[in-house]
Design goal:
Rossmann fold, alpha/beta, 6 helices, 20% strand, five-stranded parallel sheet, 5 strands
Length: 156
């Protein structure tokens, strides 16, 4: 069985990518294949890469406050490409009221700043696994490294 393919990107002019890199490494350590596009990607480039790479999920990180228009653009490009089957997930500095608006627009899940790494990883793997046709193991089955992430969490 192959690993789910998760595409991660930072759209717009947002230049802070440390959090997204932490998530990328955690997903890789949990068994996902991560396609990391990096900084300053356009919504069209993100969706085109997801289609070309046969991604099971698009993960977007936004710290700039432009999450609503960027989500709208990404979802529109996804529809134009006939790729509505690829879930879009957003994380970053997203107020609670905006999280609900994003979900209503069609974003599959929202992880605001302060979300626990194990919860983010589990959520992304679950959504990608549903798309990929696999069911991912519970956190306790992922080995010592994943348990280490859970132990290091500031909220545990």
């Amino acid at each position: 069985m192959t690993a789910p393919r998760i595409l991660l990107a930072k759209p717009g002019l947002d230049g802070h990518d440390r959090g997204l890199k932490v998530i990328a490494f955690a997903l890789r350590d949990a068994g996902a294949e991560v396609i990391y596009l990096g900084l300053r990607q356009s919504p069209a480039a993100i969706v085109a890469a997801a289609v070309a790479e046969d991604a099971d999920l698009i993960g977007i990180s936004v710290l700039s406050g432009a999450h609503l228009p960027l989500a709208e653009q990404i979802l529109a490009r996804r529809a134009e490409q006939g790729a509505e089957h690829i879930p879009v997930v957003m994380g970053g500095t997203i107020p609670a009221g905006h999280a609900q608006a994003l979900r209503e627009m069609g974003v599959a899940a929202v992880y605001p700043a302060g979300s626990l790494l194990p919860e983010v990883v589990d959520g992304l793997l679950s959504l990608a696994g549903q798309q990929h046709g696999t069911v991912k193991a519970a956190a306790g089955d992922r080995g010592d490294l994943y348990a280490l992430y859970a132990e290091k969490s500031p909220r545990s």
